[in-house]
């Protein structure tokens, strides 16, 4: 950067365009004070005033000596960083996301940066209670801030600014943050805790045969302690000295008192270790594991295709050992001196993989996900900037991290809907964003799934991506046997017990008798989705949303799953006074209730959004199930992802029809994926597995394709439908929601916007129509859908035209109060 003008020899006045963490359509230009000329650099954070009094942290986007023409540039206040915290590759990605997903680059910045790195006037500052800082090392102003935080539980940045009587306090807060004294956050999120397990070791003194002999003689008077020692010796040989306390208690059958006494005597040594919450196989832990013949063939195929293609799709059945292939390719990238990113749809559900990869690759593995608080996320960000990580595991937001030498991106379960961000903007898809990120870094992308998305499958079949298939389960285990049972027959013959067919009840009973475990899947939470008056047909509805209320037995109330509204349940119809209130449908709570009646001796657990809200509840349920303290696990989609248990031999799908009949063009694809993934939870070791699918429409095409594990037939049938009715992957879709609190205004403005778009884009515009749920949180919604062909048209030009129409529409004062929500690739 030039500080002196070469012609005049005078110091040059510089201007910076900055990205503000706001939904404004343009960057904003500030003048650089001469004393800061040498400090500014693209990617650094600067402190600026925007508006009358608001102070923000902005990112330097461009530097020039050209002042803005439309307004007088204010001076930027300060530069926060010694080195850039955002790389040029990240800024390139931000630009692409803003252009592709039709949002502002400020919204991308807001999503990308951890809250601790984007201070603003309203940012909350909290004192870290466990930091153990030395007050004598604080400056006078830092001491004042800490003193105030000890009195108040939290302060806003604007409060601290008033306290010190100065406009900007960001450098002081950055200093306290770096010293680990304060926590900076838009909101406080709970800290994720790893699972600890107690292991027992024998004191080294007793490794000597003579000493051990003496010990056995001493313990003859204490038979329980002797039993514990004998059990330890047996397990120690089996597990090479790694004996879990729980295993010892189960094997010795002596109670905890004997083990406690032996520990107090110094004979046993207890120590806690971080362990996976899932059962692991040795093949994943061993540093020199060998690929099977089919895995090696798949590895060679992928490697050959990556020489020509930037993206390869690995289509491998559940439990085929895809993770081992990922590890081998990650190892290659790291050996070549490059970084790797491993994306997972639900990082909190796959903690066993984190442990496996840390065991394999060591401490240069970073983890980035929503269970981390903002300080922890900022720490990962900074460590990656310094090059301290070779591999990062993360959920979708990990695509925003500052990689500097990315060589490989692995996207596991690439079909998962949770890779898509729905609200707020940017409404990006992590899979597609990651593929563009790989292009920026000139790296490769490996997609993996047992049930690929039709977009990825089509791209692979069309030759855009490479394709490798792995159709054998690892270790020779067989795919589970799938049985379909008719609910219609059960009703006609009156053999249903609650919502369970005779076949499923018998299968559960036999599984429990064999001391094995069961997972039951029902894609609805709550007890009863619908209450209805038999006399007049009245149904309790949410006062804020156009949905019926769901009864939850755990609270005894009716709940709205969209806005959180609750009310007391009804036993008398408020419309006609009738007491004939019937329950329609069922959720996971009802299934759990029915099971407790049919199998009163069985130990039950439920895993859904309601049962996993509290701290560590998910981990507790999984740990109990893993330790076989639970016989039957009932759950929603949570039970389909990442769970791997040796003793689960029966999967029950309570109602397949609710998936198949959902009004969405992806319903059949998603049903096939979900049913196949749930079925894949059974028989994942040497045990054979069974799946029972309950349905009214037992002859449905998708059910038979799941039974045959015939992904290709499902894909071909769906692709024909998609082509005929103008859906992806043959057409691009852009959804525009028009929202207003007044129904007539929502209707009028949606029609007006639809006409404006149809004049330019013609029959590519569909609607406006009410969506499935026409009112949420007191806003009425009308939806316009754009279907744009992929060939012979410039999507960039269409998006530019759309943006211009939407900007003019929002600028019209007659449209005051209207909220527009734009979603590119909405499903």
TrEMBL record:
<dbReference type="GO" id="GO:0006270">
    <property type="term" value="P:DNA replication initiation"/>
</dbReference>
<dbReference type="InterPro" id="IPR027417">
    <property type="entry name" value="P-loop_NTPase"/>
</dbReference>
<comment type="function">
    <text>Initiates the restart of stalled replication forks, which reloads the replicative helicase on sites other than the origin of replication. Recognizes and binds to abandoned replication forks and remodels them to uncover a helicase loading site. Promotes assembly of the primosome at these replication forks.</text>
</comment>
<keyword id="KW-0378">Hydrolase</keyword>
<feature type="domain" description="Helicase C-terminal">
    <location>
        <begin position="568"/>
        <end position="722"/>
    </location>
</feature>
<feature type="binding site">
    <location>
        <position position="563"/>
    </location>
    <ligand>
        <name>Zn(2+) 2</name>
    </ligand>
</feature>
<dbReference type="GO" id="GO:1990077">
    <property type="term" value="C:primosome complex"/>
</dbReference>
<feature type="binding site">
    <location>
        <position position="542"/>
    </location>
    <ligand>
        <name>Zn(2+) 2</name>
    </ligand>
</feature>
<dbReference type="GO" id="GO:0005524">
    <property type="term" value="F:ATP binding"/>
</dbReference>
<keyword id="KW-0235">DNA replication</keyword>
<dbReference type="GO" id="GO:0006269">
    <property type="term" value="P:DNA replication, synthesis of primer"/>
</dbReference>
<keyword id="KW-0067">ATP-binding</keyword>
<feature type="domain" description="Helicase ATP-binding">
    <location>
        <begin position="303"/>
        <end position="470"/>
    </location>
</feature>
<feature type="binding site">
    <location>
        <position position="545"/>
    </location>
    <ligand>
        <name>Zn(2+) 2</name>
    </ligand>
</feature>
<dbReference type="Pfam" id="PF00271">
    <property type="entry name" value="Helicase_C"/>
</dbReference>
<comment type="similarity">
    <text>Belongs to the helicase family. PriA subfamily.</text>
</comment>
<keyword id="KW-0347">Helicase</keyword>
<dbReference type="GO" id="GO:0006310">
    <property type="term" value="P:DNA recombination"/>
</dbReference>
<protein>
    <recommendedName>
        <fullName>Replication restart protein PriA</fullName>
        <ecNumber>5.6.2.4</ecNumber>
    </recommendedName>
</protein>
<comment type="subunit">
    <text>Component of the replication restart primosome.</text>
</comment>
<dbReference type="InterPro" id="IPR041236">
    <property type="entry name" value="PriA_C"/>
</dbReference>
<dbReference type="GO" id="GO:0043138">
    <property type="term" value="F:3'-5' DNA helicase activity"/>
</dbReference>
<dbReference type="InterPro" id="IPR041222">
    <property type="entry name" value="PriA_3primeBD"/>
</dbReference>
<feature type="binding site">
    <location>
        <position position="560"/>
    </location>
    <ligand>
        <name>Zn(2+) 2</name>
    </ligand>
</feature>
<dbReference type="Pfam" id="PF17764">
    <property type="entry name" value="PriA_3primeBD"/>
</dbReference>
<feature type="binding site">
    <location>
        <position position="533"/>
    </location>
    <ligand>
        <name>Zn(2+) 1</name>
    </ligand>
</feature>
<dbReference type="InterPro" id="IPR005259">
    <property type="entry name" value="PriA"/>
</dbReference>
<keyword id="KW-0238">DNA-binding</keyword>
<dbReference type="Pfam" id="PF00270">
    <property type="entry name" value="DEAD"/>
</dbReference>
<feature type="binding site">
    <location>
        <position position="573"/>
    </location>
    <ligand>
        <name>Zn(2+) 1</name>
    </ligand>
</feature>
<dbReference type="InterPro" id="IPR001650">
    <property type="entry name" value="Helicase_C-like"/>
</dbReference>
<dbReference type="Pfam" id="PF18074">
    <property type="entry name" value="PriA_C"/>
</dbReference>
<dbReference type="InterPro" id="IPR042115">
    <property type="entry name" value="PriA_3primeBD_sf"/>
</dbReference>
<dbReference type="GO" id="GO:0016787">
    <property type="term" value="F:hydrolase activity"/>
</dbReference>
<keyword id="KW-0862">Zinc</keyword>
<keyword id="KW-0547">Nucleotide-binding</keyword>
<keyword id="KW-0479">Metal-binding</keyword>
<dbReference type="InterPro" id="IPR011545">
    <property type="entry name" value="DEAD/DEAH_box_helicase_dom"/>
</dbReference>
<dbReference type="GO" id="GO:0006302">
    <property type="term" value="P:double-strand break repair"/>
</dbReference>
<feature type="binding site">
    <location>
        <position position="576"/>
    </location>
    <ligand>
        <name>Zn(2+) 1</name>
    </ligand>
</feature>
<dbReference type="InterPro" id="IPR040498">
    <property type="entry name" value="PriA_CRR"/>
</dbReference>
<keyword id="KW-0413">Isomerase</keyword>
